[in-house]
Design brief:
214 residues
Length: 214
């Protein structure tokens, strides 16, 4: 008589489905990691600190190429939101909105919103444009990134992904974990997590025995 394996428990089945959905999602979105936890309020009110942003590779449909605001300096919300990492940038990648595309050598201040530019082209570090790329900004910021000195004109090769969907507040666990790692170190966080899991298991066994004796 051949024994058959026991069917997966509800927890195991849920875990398997979750892993499969994650793998399929990564394959479809084409970006790794496929989620970004927002650490600052520079994109408020569209995206707030603690939100989780699902991102996709910039070459995935149906979005096509990167789109800026319909008109330079127009109301925020009309341009693509991208994740990019300029050379030498320390910290997490920047998640900001595309204002418009520029060409190498262009005085982009002539096409930008004067309210978002602090100075003339000759006084700005990243003007004229050193290469083809994009002018970007945070919705809650008062200047273009390239005017404030936050980032150079964003070269297409620096773009990691494009924002697809925002899930409010779901990024807080990730931010909390990163803060714990920064404070205690990876080994410390793993040790604390192991201790909590072990303590929870021991407590569960003790409660089970007490319940059996009642």
């Amino acid at each position: 008589m051949v024994s058959r394996p026991a069917p997966p428990t509800g927890f195991a089945l849920a875990a398997l489905v979750t892993v499969m959905c994650f793998v399929i999602g990564v394959a479809v979105l084409g970006a790794w990691p496929p989620f970004v936890a927002v650490e600052s309020g520079s994109m408020e009110p569209a995206i707030e600190r603690g939100d989780l942003v699902v991102v996709t590779a910039i070459d995935r449909g149906p979005w096509g190429g990167i789109d800026g605001s319909s008109t330079p300096g127009s109301e925020s919300g009309s341009g693509d939101i991208i994740v990019f990492s300029p050379p030498g940038h320390e910290g997490p990648p920047i998640l900001h909105r595309v204002a418009f595309a520029v060409e190498s050598g262009e005085d982009w201040t002539e096409r930008g919103d004067g309210d978002l530019i602090d100075g003339e082209c000759e006084t700005l570090r990243y003007c004229p444009a050193p290469h083809d790329g994009y002018i970007t900004y945070g919705d809650a910021n008062g200047e273009y990134d390239q005017s404030a000195g936050l980032a150079p004109v964003v070269h297409p090769d620096w773009i990691d992904a494009r924002a697809a969907v925002t899930v409010p507040h779901l990024g807080w666990p990730r931010l909390g974990f990163d803060a714990a790692v920064a404070h205690f170190g990876t080994v410390g966080v793993v040790a604390v997590g192991t201790f909590i899991a072990f303590s929870g298991g021991v407590l569960g066994v003790l409660l089970g025995r007490v319940y059996d004796r009642l």
